[in-house]
Amino acid sequence: MKIIHVSGYEEMSGKSADLMAELIQNSNNPVIGFATGSTPIGLYKCLIKKYRQKEISFRNVTAFNLDEYVGLAKENKNSYHYYMNEKLFKHLDISRRNINIPNGMAEDLEQECLSYDRLVSEKAIDIQILGMGLNGHIGFNEPGTSFKSRTHIVDLDQSTRQANSRFFRSLDEVPTKALTMGIETIMESKRILLLVSGNEKSEALARLLNSTRVSQEFPASILRKHKDVTVMADDAALNKIH
Ligand code: F6R
């Protein structure tokens, strides 16, 4: 794993955008895996800026998102469809038909997972952006998820629902299920960029970097087995690394 140490959130956002921009400029049809959550918001702002300054174009970009809640419509402000549109896609020249996000409203969720997974595999993600949960989850793959998992339906951990309830009016409104790319699906990405910022992630990051243990109990540990992972983390997140 390559570790890029940055001073804080702003530098992480700028540097990760530079890295993404380089990839976009050097590829004819870049396929990018996007994440939601708080961590990549700064990166997305920087990408929009680069697009407005005509440094990069998303005309030939194909996008895949990691996950989506079950039961939230695209128009729901808490859906990841809404998040991606507001925070990134609507500001860019990306073609709508190249945007792929699991459909948590599908009538047949199992079928949706299968089709989504097939599409991800066919296109092959050049770079997958990841954030990490406090319990080491990546996507919505909670501790205990099989490393062999493909895109699937998950029951969300109480801790994850609690953490994400900050976006909802109450904990009760946070969906109990989600669709997520599986760990094996994520690991097939050619390159992975894991962004970690802030003191509250320092325990989790220490668990990932201080040990060589790879265990399903800490999903992000699988990243140690990937041949091209960059972890970009700031001072606060790295403060428990020895
Ligand atoms: C988001 C996702 C999650 C988040 C993780 C960290 O699509 O899949 O795994 O990356 O929960 O979230 P934040 O960035 O809000 O700390």
Automatic annotation (TrEMBL):
Catalytic machinery residues: D67 (proton acceptor), N135 (for ring-opening step), H137 (proton acceptor), E142 (for ring-opening step)
Annotated EC: 3.5.99.6
InterPro entries: Glc/Gal-6P_isomerase, Glucosamine6P_isomerase, NagB/RpiA_transferase-like
Enzyme class label: hydrolase
Involved pathway(s): Amino-sugar metabolism; N-acetylneuraminate degradation; D-fructose 6-phosphate from N-acetylneuraminate: step 5/5
Alphabetical UniProt keywords: Carbohydrate metabolism, Hydrolase, Isomerase
Catalysed reactions, as listed in the record: alpha-D-glucosamine 6-phosphate + H2O = beta-D-fructose 6-phosphate + NH4(+)
One cellular component term from this protein's GO annotations in UniProt: cytoplasm
Listed Pfam families: Glucosamine_iso
GO terms assigned for molecular function: glucosamine-6-phosphate deaminase activity; identical protein binding; isomerase activity
Glucosamine/galactosamine-6-phosphate isomerase domain: residues covered: 15-229
GO annotation, biological process: carbohydrate metabolic process; glucosamine catabolic process; N-acetylglucosamine catabolic process; N-acetylneuraminate catabolic process
Biological role: Catalyzes the reversible isomerization-deamination of glucosamine 6-phosphate (GlcN6P) to form fructose 6-phosphate (Fru6P) and ammonium ion.
UniProt cross-references to NCBIfam families, sorted A to Z: nagB
Family according to the record: Belongs to the glucosamine/galactosamine-6-phosphate isomerase family. NagB subfamily.
HAMAP family associated with the record: GlcN6P_deamin (MF_01241)
Protein name: Glucosamine-6-phosphate deaminase
Gene: nagB
